[in-house]
Specification:
The chain has 422 residues and is an alpha/beta fold. The protein contains 19 helices and 15 strands. The structure holds beta-D-galactopyranose.
């Protein structure tokens, strides 16, 4: 029996040890990695710090290249211009189909040796591996698994208004209406295309179920895209639009999380990076906030995984790059990072011991969904279709949410713009 890996020493202890041995042997920080990412919120930056510290403990310098913007669209734009000018960063935070796109361009580094030494093939879940590799070559090191079909609720607000965790979609809407009647904001939301799309992942799953999700968002089946069910999805998006506050437009996701934390709003529908914000503010799951699957999506998981795609670099950065890849998949790092980030490990052999109640649930849900074939990639976060199609979804979802487009019109435009993007 292979025992699950738990933390034997504290991660801090490991880092300290590594730092001391580096300084004793006089290892200078000759090598460095340049890391392009969009982890700029408090919780995200704290999580990323665990990687920077781990590398610094090995004598590897860190050149930070943050590009703000959840979902990573802006980061991907910056990346394109860097690669086009022949100056790719060492490592780039990336998701799903974007990794495959870059893998096809022949500009990514080959991580096979590190992957072999670390036995990645055996420990990285198939759903992630499918994006990390092109033609048998590992291009990216998976950091975590997030999922988008979550709701974050403020416990005190729920108690004050007298609402329980809703069991289905209709209960969820009634609960939010009660919050509104009590003079509070039902849904904390940031009106940015990727956030609208993040909500859409959950609404669509709750409305059509797993088969519909696959048909509409992964197979891009025209019948599904133009169906009555899809109209109902947009109807529900319209209902949600009536449950956000007047100032939602353009708001960053972490500010929406803060509204839930500060008892201004009851709920946020957001991936579990939101938990990283709650934890970073000292909030305790079960006491200050609750986490539950988007009502009506229980038993399914719409996942997204961040990976660091490694680009071909000059010889002087190669060794540091390989060390970074190895560090990312180490069990110690996976635990240290993911307990802070709100995500769960990108390895199947890690114990849930160090994780809080929401993390334990996330790990159990992921396992169950994997076994039941109800694990699907998040459309909003690049795991259902390539970027062009994802952007076609974004455009229509956000135009509908922010305007007065009817559900019929939205469905029509969606089918047309997806067809155009394929
Ligand atoms: C997602 C990413 C998460 C989180 C979020 C908000 O795309 O997977 O790690 O950072 O964006 O920035």
């Amino acid at each position: 029996m292979t025992a699950k890996i738990t933390i034997k020493k504290t991660f801090k202890g490991l880092l300290l040890g590594a730092a001391i041995s580096a300084s004793m042997t006089g290892v200078a920080q000759a090598a460095e990695v340049e890391v392009l990412h969009w982890w700029t919120s408090g919780g995200e930056a704290k999580a990323l710090g665990t990687l920077r510290d781990s590398l610094q403990g090995q004598g590897i310098g860190w050149k930070d290249m943050p590009v703000a913007g959840g979902g990573g669209s802006s980061a991907m734009t910056v990346l394109r211009s860097r690669v086009m000018s022949g100056n790719a960063p060492t490592a780039v935070q990336m998701m799903g189909f974007d990794i495959l796109d870059w893998g096809d361009q022949g500009v990514t580094a080959n991580l096979n040796e590190v992957a072999k030494a670390g036995n990645w093939d055996a420990v990285v879940p198939a759903a992630l591996k499918k994006f990390s590799k092109t033609n048998g070559q590992w291009n990216a090191a998976p950091v975590n698994v997030h999922s988008t079909n979550w709701v974050w609720g403020n416990k005190a607000v729920m108690d004050k208004v007298g609402i329980e965790i809703p069991a289905n979609w209709d209960d969820f809407v009634s609960a939010m209406q009660k919050v509104k009647a009590a003079g509070l904001i039902p849904l904390a939301h940031g009106g940015q295309a990727w956030q609208d799309a993040t909500i859409f992942d959950g609404v669509l799953m709750a409305t059509g179920g797993i088969d519909f999700y696959r048909k509409a968002l992964i197979d891009l089946d025209e019948q599904a895209l133009t169906s009555k069910t899809m109209q109902q999805v947009f109807d529900r998006m319209r209902v949600l639009r009536g449950l956000v506050d007047d100032n939602f437009s353009g708001r960053d996701w972490n500010l929406a999380s803060a509204m839930v934390m500060n008892e201004k709003a009851a709920f946020q529908m957001m991936g579990d990076w939101a938990k990283g914000e709650f934890l970073n503010a000292g909030k305790v799951p079960g006491k200050d906030f609750v986490c539950f699957r988007t009502p009506g999506t229980q038993g399914t998981v719409t996942f997204n995984a961040d990976q660091f795609t490694m680009f071909k670099v000059d010889d002087d950065r190669h060794e540091a790059q390989m060390k970074m890849a190895a560090a990312i998949l180490s069990p110690e790092f996976q635990i240290a990072f993911n307990t802070v980030k709100g995500s769960v490990p990108a390895r199947t052999d890690i114990s849930d011991e160090a994780f809080d109640a929401c993390g334990k649930k996330a790990m159990a849900d992921l396992k169950e969904a994997g076994a039941n074939n109800t694990l699907v990639g998040s459309m909003a976060h690049g795991h259902a279709s390539p970027a062009a199609v994802k952007n076609a979804f974004y455009d229509v979802i956000t135009a509908h949410f922010n305007g007065d487009m009817s559900s019929q019109e939205a469905v029509k435009q969606l089918a047309a713009s997806v067809k155009n993007a394929i």
